[in-house]
Amino acid sequence: TLSSDAELLKVMRPIDDRIVHELNTTVPTPSFAGKIDASQTCKHLYESLMAAHDSRDRVQKNCIAQTSAVVKNLREEREKNLDDLTLLKQLRKEQTKLKRMQSELNVEEVVNDRSWKVFDERCQIHFKLQKNE
Asked: What region, left, alpha or beta, does residue 129 occupy, with left being phi > 0 and alpha being psi -120 to 50 degrees?
């Protein structure tokens, strides 16, 4: 269901929700840079963000693909039986679900952009992305 999909994404976003706290507690300001290996910390955080974003992207796109297939099948059934109001209601429900899932992709983009902006602000002097990464 749509609510369970939204809950799943929420559960999958803790790294993005806590990125400022994570950076404040693990990446030192320049005056404390000698006490912690900030480059390793930033590298680990980079890898965690990439993994989290990739995982959520796969889940969302899989849900969208499945719901799109359901909508397609319901449309085909609806064309065969225009008088079936139950089928029409089900089609509309699935179409609404699909639109919400697609709009959640926009939310995901905003969440990801915010996380990368914060990451770049704090880690740009400690971590340089290698061309092969």
From this structure: beta
